[in-house]
Amino acid sequence: MGTTTDQESQSGNSAKTETNLPMATSLEELAAFSAVNSLPLAGETLAFTGTLASMTHRAAMELVEQHGGRSTQSVTLQTTMLIIGEEGWPLEDDGRTSQKLQQATQSLADGHSMRIIAESDWLQMLGLDDRRDEIRKAHTPAMLSRLLDVPVRLIRRWARLGLIRPVRRICRLPYFDYREVASARRLATLLDEGVSAETLEKSLSELSQTISGTDRSLAQLTLLVHDEKVLIRDDRGVLIPRTGQRLLDFDFADPPKVFAAPAEAPTAATAKPEHEDDATPFLLPFTGGHKTPVERSMADWNAEEWFHEGCRLTEESELESAINAFRNSLSLLGSDRGMVSKPDDPADEERLLFPDPADVNFHLADALYREGRTEAAVERYYCAIEVAPDFIEAWTQLGCLQAELEEFDAAEQSLCTAMSIHPGNPDVLLHYAQLLDRTARENEAAGYWAQYLQHDTRGPWADHARDRIAAHEVRQQM
After folding, report:
1. What pTM was estimated for this model as a whole?
2. C-alpha 283, offset from chain centre
3. Fold classified for 291-388
């Protein structure tokens, strides 16, 4: 048998290459073929799992086709890429990982070639950095409330518990990572629906083998489990992690057996302690009775404890009791405010652990408003601002309540003050644009709706903002 010459080899390779080309009859067709094969998803078969933060699954599938790929509803041996949605994790209603992710993981274990990619990385692959930046953008509590349909007070509660952490603060206004809040919401929903913490921990552990970011979700799960099931004893008494509330009085006929807390925070599956002979602090089952706020005198708790109790009661819609708790906190703060230096007696250290009076007034205002006492709430927002003149959320809420009372000049002044403190605050831009529309100043409002869209392109108010801008353009052409 003879050997193939270089010329024959080159000719053969050329012929092989030509068989992959279409039967083109023009340079235009050749250029079109080349363009299609240069697209970032050329030759790829994609599937999606979990809720996408940037778009619907249908829109994502159309995007795949536009970029040269093929999309499927299921994971098969032909699937080359599985995209993980970043609005919460791909967890089914029973808490287990999605069937698509399980199939992809098994396919990889069997030696098949497939990539598992986070949604934001997929967007970057397509050159859609604006959409990627949108889902990685930090959001205010009010924006998250609108995007995720979660009450603002729940987001604030999660922040107090450490379940979510602000990525930055601007003049007291916290900004949170959208994905972290979405993860907390999904985990909390599944727990509330009866899914066990052990199942969720197992699912998150499986996720951690294919995609990063689950360590934080495991920490969230542990906090959520503690939030519902345990009390913690330390040298200042007993603490409910769910609220931060301390219980200083117990009426046990037979006190329950106490359990030593581990040196490190337990995982969700081991939240129930196993060892019983270590030193304090202690974990106790949530079975202890204690005095209700009605039965307590003001002196039973310090200002910090009354503040946390007020927050808890507000979250449970026990508004009148919450109002009284916040007033008790403020009364105790008034008696302690003179202590600004370190006390000589270490026993007095606890007196310095009071909350910020501006925060107490802010939460009191919220409780008053929800109780239907709008004018009283207005005064409490003023009190918060007197203590902290740069309190953006207080100025914004004040402006909204003044607009509700049809005190439009005062509302405009409050909202403009908030904008002067933080011009890029989307919440203020939204409410000021609404105020201008309401007072028949639509042309002025259009500019603020445009500014708002720079911060929110996909929330429920984004479409409204576009409609208002379009209406303004029509008026301009008339």
Report:
1. 0.68
2. 28
3. 1.25.40
